[in-house]
User: Fold these one by one.
Assistant:
Number 1:
Amino acid sequence: MSETTARHAPPFFCPYCGEEDIRPFGEAAAQYRCGSCLRVWTLRLSGTTTHTAEVPS
Ligand SMILES: [Zn+2]
C-alpha cells in the first residue's frame, strides 16, 4: 500500500468551503465530494516528518 492510499480518518469538513456535507465520491481512494460547493477533492498524505523538522519556506 502506498502512502497516497494509506488509510486515514474520514474528514469532517470540506477544506474549501468548510461545510460538513461531504461524502466519498467515485472509485478512487480518499476522493470526496462536497454537497455544498460541489467540489470533488482527494485527501492525500504528502509524507511524514519529525517534531524537529524545519518548516519549508
Ligand atoms: Zn465545499
Number 2:
Amino acid sequence: MDVQDIKGDQVSCDLLVVGGGIAGITTALEASEVGRKAVLIEKTPMLGGRVLRTNLYFPKMCPPGCGIEINLKRIRQNENITVSTLTEVESISGSPGNYEITLKINPRFVNEKCTACDECAKVCEVMRKNELNFGLDETTAIYLPHKLAFPYRYVIDPEYVDDERMKKCVEACEYGAIELDMQPRTVKVKTGAIIWATGWEPYDATKIDNLGFGQYPNVVTNVIMERLASVDGPTHGEIKRPSDGNAPKSVGFVQCAGSRDENHLPYCSAICCMASMKQAQYIRRQHPDTEIHIFYIDVRSPGRWEDFYMNAQEDEKIHFHRGKVARITEEDGTGNLVLEAENTLTGEMTRTTVEMAILATGMVPTTKSSPPPVDVRLDEFGYIDQDDDSGIIGCGNVMRPLEVSATIQDATGAALKGIIAAKGGTK
Ligand SMILES: Cc1cc2nc3c(=O)[nH]c(=O)nc-3n(C[C@H](O)[C@H](O)[C@H](O)COP(=O)(O)OP(=O)(O)OC[C@H]3O[C@@H](n4cnc5c(N)ncnc54)[C@H](O)[C@@H]3O)c2cc1C
C-alpha cells in the first residue's frame, strides 16, 4: 500500500486533522513525529491543497514540489500517521479528550493495486473538465490528480463512473485496480482533539461586476494566472492571452479586486500584493518586453518581503500606479482592456489600455460556506474565532489569511495545542 489508509470501520487516534493542505500536513507530521497518533483526512483525491496549485512560491520562487515532496516522504516514513483522501466529517460529538467523529469516505473507484501505469487513461474515451485548471482544459474521466499526487493513484470522476465506456478502462487494467462499483464507507473515529485546517477558496470574481471577469476573456484572476504559468496548466506554462493565444505585450494587475471593499471582502488578504509581484516575474521571465502595470491602493509587503517589493520597483518594465481600478471595459474588436482607475491620493482619474488583466482577488476561509458540524465560534468573515476551551483547534487559513511560512508556524502551534487538548487539558 502506498498510503496509510484507514482499514476497517473504526480507528482511534490522539489528533484528527481535517484538511490535507500545508497546514494539515504539517500539524499531522509534527504531532506524529513526537509519538502521537494522527489521522489526516482530505476531501479531494490528493494531499497538497492550494500550494500544489501554484507555479512557484514567494519569496524564494521555488516550485511547490520542493516543500511538498519532503513532507510526503516524512508521511511515508511515519507509522503514526493514517491518511484518508476523498474523506469528509459527517458528525462530531463529545468533548476535549474524548471526541467521536463519523467520517464518510467517498469511493475512488481505483484500489491500492494501481501502479499509475496510465494504460486505463490511454483507452478512456470519456472526458471531463479539469478542475485543477479551473475547467480551462480536460482530462480523461480516469486520471492521476497531479504529478505529485499523494496517494500516487488514479481516480475516476464520480459523474462518469456509470458511463458504459468506462468498462474499457477496467479491461485495460492488468492489475485489477479498477472497481466501478466501489461504494462510500463510513468510519467512526475516537480522538482527543480535532484540528480544523480546511484552508481557503478564492473570492468569486464574477461578483465584482465592474471588473469584467466572466465577461471579457482577457480578464483572469490570480489563481488562474498560477495555472497559466504552470507546466501542467492548460497552456503548458506558456502565458498567453486567452482570446487569441498571443503573448500579451501589456498586462495590468488589479490589486484589492473585491478586497478591502465593504461590498465584497472588507478585509485585506495579506498575500495578494506579493502574489502579483511574483506573477509579474513569471511574465518578465517569459516575455521580457511586456509592459506590466500594477494598480494598487497601497502595497503590503511587510517584514522581510520589502526586498521583493524593492526589486519589483527597480524593474523598468514594472510600473506601479497608485489607483483603485473602478472599471474595466473591452475595446471594440481588439480584445484589449481599458482600466479606469482613481488615484487614491489626488482623486485624478486615469485610463490605461492593456492586452490582459489579472484580478488580485482575495482569500475566503472555507469555514464561511462549510463550517465544522459542531458549535465553533466564527467571526463575521467566517474565520474561526478560537475558543480556548474547545478541543477543536483552527489552523492555517481558516484562522486568518496567511502565506505558506506563517501557515507552517501556525500548524506547529496547532500540533502542540492539539496534544494538550487531547489529554483534556486547556491550551
Ligand atoms: C494567488 C495566490 C498565490 C499565492 N502564492 C503564494 C506564494 O507564492 N507563497 C506563499 O507563501 N503563499 C502563497 N499563497 C498563499 C497560500 O496559498 C496559502 O498560504 C496556503 O494555501 C495555506 O495552506 P492551508 O493548508 O491553510 O490551506 P489550503 O491550501 O487551502 O489547504 C486546505 C486543504 O483542506 C481541504 N479541505 C477543504 N475543506 C475540507 C473538508 N471539509 N474536509 C476535508 N478537507 C477539506 C482542501 O481540499 C485543501 O486540500 C498564495 C495565495 C494566492 C491566493
Number 3:
Amino acid sequence: MRCTVIGAGVCGLSCAVRLLEAGWAVEIVAEKFSPETTSDRAAAVWYPFLVAPADRAKVWAMASYSVFSELSASEPEAGVIMRTGREYLRENMESPDWHTAITRFRLLGPGELPDEYVHGWEFEVPVVEMPRYMAWLRARCESLGGTLTQRRLESFDDVEGDALVNCSGLGARELAGDDDLHPMRGQVLYLDQTPAVGHFDQQPETLAYVIPRSDCTVLGGTAQINDWNESPSEDDSELILAKCTAMWPGLDTSRITGVAVGLRPARSAVRLELESGERPLIHNYGHGGGGVTLSWGCADEVVALLSAAT
Ligand SMILES: Cc1cc2nc3c(=O)[nH]c(=O)nc-3n(C[C@H](O)[C@H](O)[C@H](O)COP(=O)(O)OP(=O)(O)OC[C@H]3O[C@@H](n4cnc5c(N)ncnc54)[C@H](O)[C@@H]3O)c2cc1C
C-alpha cells in the first residue's frame, strides 16, 4: 500500500518513519525541506507547551519522551541530549501532571529562584538539536526506502497514493481550508555561551527560555498570535535578552551570534483525525508550540488510525 505524507517538518518525517516501519511505501511531498521548515526553528525542548487537548497531548508527549530518551542513549548522531532545566514561576502552581512520569523532577528551594520568581521546579528532559535532528530524521526515512518530492500542493487531489497523511503545518490553513489554524510567531537568538542548566519561564505572557545545545545556546522567546512577520525584530531581540538575563544574570549579551523567526502552527487543538472519502486522509497538524514534543506519539496514532481504516 502506498501512502503520501504531505509535509517534511518534524511531524511529517516522524509519521513517514513510523509508516515505513509498518510496511507502507511512503512518498513525502513538501514545498519546503530542512533547513527551511518551521521545525528547523524550534528551540527545541521536550515540554508540553501551548498545546491542546491536554489529555491526548499528555499521551503523545509521554510516547515521544520515551523515544527521545532512547535516541539520546543509542543514536548520538540524532542530536538528542537529556538536559537539566529549571522552570521559574511568579506564583505558586501545581506541578505539571507529567512530573511523576519523567526520570528526574524536584521542586526548587527559595535560594534557587531568580529575583521576581516565587516557585519553580527542576527537571531532566530531552533537548532536540533541530539542525542535526532534522537531518537524522530525513536520513532515517531514506534508509527505510521513503522518497521525497519537492512540490507545493494546491489540493489533496494533486497527489497519488492509497492513503494520505496531512502534516502541512500552517500550510493546512489553505490546503484543508482551516480558519482555526493561525501563526504564533516565535523569535529566537543564538548565543556562544553555555549556562550550567537550562532556564525557563513558560507562561505565555512572560515566555522566556535559555536552552543549551552542544554548539550554541538558544534564547527565546515570543508567542505573537496572528503575526505573519518572518523578519527578525530588534525590539523582540532586546525583550528576549532582558527576559533571559533576569533568569540567567551571567548571560553575556555581546556573544549573540544569530537570530531566527518561525511561525508556530497554532490551533485551538491539534487536529489528528481521519477524514473518510475515496481514500483515507489523516490530518495531523496544529501542534502550536509543541510539535517536537508530540511528534512520535502523534505518529503512532496516525499509523493506528490508518491501519484501522485500510
Ligand atoms: C521559535 C520556536 C520555538 C519552538 N520551540 C519548540 C520547543 O522547544 N519544543 C517543541 O516541541 N516545539 C517547539 N516549537 C514548535 C514546533 O516548531 C512546531 O510545533 C513544529 O515544528 C510543527 O511541525 P510541523 O511538521 O507540523 O510543521 P512544519 O515544520 O511547518 O512543516 C510543514 C511542512 O508542510 C509543508 N507544506 C505546507 N503547505 C504545503 C503545501 N501546500 N504543499 C506542500 N507542502 C506544504 C511545508 O513545506 C513543510 O515541509 C517551536 C517553534 C518555534 C517557531
